[in-house]
Amino acid sequence: MKSFRKELWFNVPGRRAFINITSPVEQALVESKIREGLALVNAMHITASVFINDDEPGLHRDYQRWLEKLAPHAPTSQYQHNRTGEDNADAHMKRQIMGREVVVAITRGKLDIGPWEQIFYGEFDGYRNKRVLVKVIGE
Amino acid sequence: MKSFRKELWFNVPGRRAFINITSPVEQALVESKIREGLALVNAMHITASVFINDDEPGLHRDYQRWLEKLAPHAPTSQYQHNRTGEDNADAHMKRQIMGREVVVAITRGKLDIGPWEQIFYGEFDGYRNKRVLVKVIGE
Amino acid sequence: MKSFRKELWFNVPGRRAFINITSPVEQALVESKIREGLALVNAMHITASVFINDDEPGLHRDYQRWLEKLAPHAPTSQYQHNRTGEDNADAHMKRQIMGREVVVAITRGKLDIGPWEQIFYGEFDGYRNKRVLVKVIGE
Prior knowledge:
3 copies of one chain form a homotrimer.
Chain A lengths: L1 E10 L5 E4 L1 H11 L4 E7 L4 E6 L3 H14 L18 H10 L2 E7 L2 E2 L6 E6 L5 E10 L1
Antiparallel strand pairs in A: 1-8, 2-7, 3-5, 3-8, 4-7, 5-6
């Protein structure tokens, strides 16, 4: 069994963003030389997500509005977590809805995903360096 | 290390449904001849889910009502995504709550799941052919 | 390829709790003697979660309040599932938001997690024995 590890780094110049990371994950897979196995792609931070969905800007705006409705940022005083000096409690909730990680099958050296599946980094508390782990195991 | 891949196909004659796929996943596991490892079961479409929960019809109706409350289908004009000609923006949200995938342990040739755990395909935008990927790795 | 399996057991003396299980998962990893691979950590019950987030008590109280808002326990009569004699339909919903499982990379014999990532067992229907499965595969 082979294994391969790579970090992808991000510094989002805003509080929230969705970034398509399908290409860097494919690049990591090429570097891994693994042809059959599983790839784990996970946020290493607890106010960020990795998820798979559509690369359609209107949908991304819908997601942002929807997450804001389910877990509003303001008033920040509504969250006990923010008494620690943070203002990001809502980001911990948005991340739970969108998820920490995806696991993707590797088949014949490719990401084995459907025609519209794209992998995204979801940032909910940006303005600083954060990373995603790509771990591939297989043969 | 061995690996095995199988697609399960669905064509739901309605917009939404939950289908118990535990048996076909077990069948794929038998075909794989893998006795120790991990099985990834994921929707290959972005308006569908694979999740694990109870096979109880009342609960499934509760889930449908609850998901409709959290991410209503109508009015479809509330979602920018639907300006692309789709009417399925809500399905992209429902799928995020229920999840894209499950990873299940394989132990002594069986799905290593709890007594009430059953694997479901969750369709949120049916009336067409869609598929689930089963990928098993191990020995 | 090696594989390793361990169950962690819980009996929460209340309906709901979040329990940090990072140390017992690390202990299982030491016992597995696996240095490179993937660890699956999943609830074996359908009214409980395994998730990764912050070990901050204020945030945990925020999560409880937020989950109660998204999927209220009372009135229990609002859920068809509860006509089966249960009163835990809300727990099946809370668990979907927080998730069934996490998959964690194993690198050089350690959990390959970010500085604030901690693994939690989330109980939403306690007062009885329930378990978490840790399955590690790799080399």
